[in-house]
């Protein structure tokens, strides 16, 4: 039954998940990573669509699952991220065949059983699981904090403020089976310790347990031994080895492709006028959010703008010697049938610097006849023959974009561009020109270091000067002779 559903929720999820699921998916489970999500007592998860039998959850679908779950679940998220993990780890060490006293996951099983509606995804593509930190960070709009249970006890969390706490867990790759079980049991104790601390602080939480990569080298041999003990013949296993090796190779190539797409290895958007390129845009992540009912509804436009086989619609874009405008046209974004993202730029000659500069005058969001305008000319600029690059361009966290007026609809919107690069003029050869980075050379940290070094140099110089002013006595007291008489008056 578990193999047909591929997602289990309820009180019986643990035993069925540990005992049955890998038996029906031995051929492919070593290339996927399981993911478990649960909430503290009293906080349930919304019901979600069940994936088809044999379906592997990818990057986009996992992001949808997390977004739906975090819509009503507590926003304090505990991410237990193990180095490696596969289904076989649970079937081998989870007491799935009646030996519950030997289970290496008592705290995990107790958490899943006590949670009102846990979510268990047995087969998640490992590129998706490795990107779960970034997905949670985007959806919670907060940076991850890498924690230890000892430091968590000193941290005071607020139920109204989202937090992403990451606990890294090891995995044993040795040949000793008991050592692997001991490591997993230690990880389970860490999970139990963290949940106890959260319970003592009376803070509701959402917990996620997954891994960066599958432990396929260890889990493959274990699953083959299990098949042999259940009744599968050695000859069938040897025959299946070759097929599984080919499947693993194909999955590995597919995973590498997904990783490249996720990490942003794709060509930039280029607008051409008269056959020659004049505007280029690239971003690792491009996201817009709107405030509705006191909550920010977010939409990721990256997959609709960049990637292999993606051709964005650029109707309305223009460029000339003094002005350029890049228009990205979308449909059905955040409930708006018509949606446009406009980058308006201009260039002019400045007498003080004796050169031409281009500025990103505005970023506009046009939706169903309305317009939200962000001003960027004060912060986003570069020499006209250069491109502009910045790690983060937003209007809400270290903002480089600001609403044009206090009553502009832009106050109800958020835009976020990660690893952003744009060039509106002098594009040649389909490549960006030299990038002018937004990070200044003299950052606050550099200034503090320089001032501290200068202060220490002054103190050292003063100390050396004082030492050089010291003079030794010209006469010394002889204990066998008469005492030296020092006249008190001249």
What does the model show?
This protein is an alpha+beta fold. It is built from 13 helices and 20 strands. The strands form 3 sheets. Strands 7, 8, 9, 10, 17, 19 and 20 form a 7-stranded mixed sheet that branches. Strand 13 (336-350) and strand 14 form a beta hairpin. The longest helix is centred in the middle third of the chain and has 29 residues, at 234-262. The chain is flat and about 110 Å long. Residues 1-30 and 218-237 have low confidence and may be disordered.
Percentage of residues assigned to helices: 25-40%
**Average pLDDT:** 78
Number of strands: 20
Strand content: 25-35%
* Rg estimate, integer Å: 31 Å
Structural class: alpha+beta
Number of helices: 13
- For the record, give the distance between the C-alpha atoms at the N and C termini, rounded to a whole number: 112 Å
Mass-distribution shape: flat
Low-confidence stretches: 1-30, 218-237
Characterize the biggest β-sheet: 7 strands, mixed
Oligomer: single chain
């Amino acid at each position: 039954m578990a193999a047909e559903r591929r997602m289990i929720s309820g009180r019986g999820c643990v035993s069925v998940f540990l005992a049955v699921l890998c038996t029906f998916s031995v051929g492919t489970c070593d290339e996927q990573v399981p993911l478990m999500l649960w909430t503290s007592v009293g906080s349930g998860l919304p019901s979600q669509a069940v994936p088809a039998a044999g379906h592997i959850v990818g990057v986009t679908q996992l992001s949808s699952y997390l977004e739906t779950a975090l819509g009503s679940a507590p926003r304090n998220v505990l991410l237990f991220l193990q180095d490696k993990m596969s289904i076989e780890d649970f079937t081998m060490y989870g007491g799935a065949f009646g030996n519950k006293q030997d289970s290496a996951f008592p705290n995990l099983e107790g958490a899943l059983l006590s949670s009102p509606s846990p979510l268990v995804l047995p087969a998640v593509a490992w590129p998706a699981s490795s990107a779960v930190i970034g997905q949670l960070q985007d959806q919670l709009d907060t940076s991850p904090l890498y924690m230890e249970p000892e430091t968590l006890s000193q941290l005071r969390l607020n139920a109204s403020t989202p937090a992403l706490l990451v606990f890294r867990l090891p995995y044993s790759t040795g040949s000793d089976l008991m050592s692997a079980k001991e490591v997993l049991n230690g990880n389970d104790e860490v999970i139990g310790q963290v949940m106890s601390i959260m319970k003592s602080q009376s803070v509701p939480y959402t917990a996620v347990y997954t891994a960066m990569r599958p432990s396929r080298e260890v889990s493959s041999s274990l699953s083959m031994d299990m098949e042999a003990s259940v009744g599968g013949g050695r000859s069938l296993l040897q025959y299946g080895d070759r097929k599984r090796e080919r499947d693993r190779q194909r999955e590995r190539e597919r995973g590498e492709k997904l990783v490249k797409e996720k990490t942003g290895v794709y060509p930039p958007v280029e607008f051409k006028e008269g056959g020659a390129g004049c505007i280029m845009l690239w971003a690792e992540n491009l996201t817009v959010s709107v405030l509705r009912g006191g909550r920010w509804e977010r939409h990721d436009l990256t997959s609709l703008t960049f990637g292999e086989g993606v051709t964005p619609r650029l109707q309305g874009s223009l460029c000339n010697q003094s002005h350029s405008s890049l228009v990205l046209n979308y449909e059905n974004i955040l409930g708006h049938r018509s949606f446009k993202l406009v980058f308006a730029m201009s260039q002019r000659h400045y007498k003080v610097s004796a050169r031409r500069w281009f500025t990103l005058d505005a970023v506009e969001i046009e939706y169903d006849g309305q317009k939200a305008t962000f001003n960027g000319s004060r912060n986003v600029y570069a020499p006209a023959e250069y491109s502009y690059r910045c790690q983060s361009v937003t209007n809400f966290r270290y903002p480089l974009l600001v609403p044009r007026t206090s009553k502009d609809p832009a106050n109800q919107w958020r835009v976020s561009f990660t690893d952003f690069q744009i060039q509106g003029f002098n594009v040649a050869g389909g490549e960006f020109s030299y990038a002018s980075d937004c990070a200044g050379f003299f950052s606050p940290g550099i200034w503090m270091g320089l001032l501290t070094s200068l202060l220490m140099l002054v103190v050292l110089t003063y100390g050396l000067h004082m030492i050089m002013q010291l003079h030794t006595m010209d006469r010394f007291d002889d204990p066998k002779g008469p005492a030296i008489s020092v006249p008190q008056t001249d």
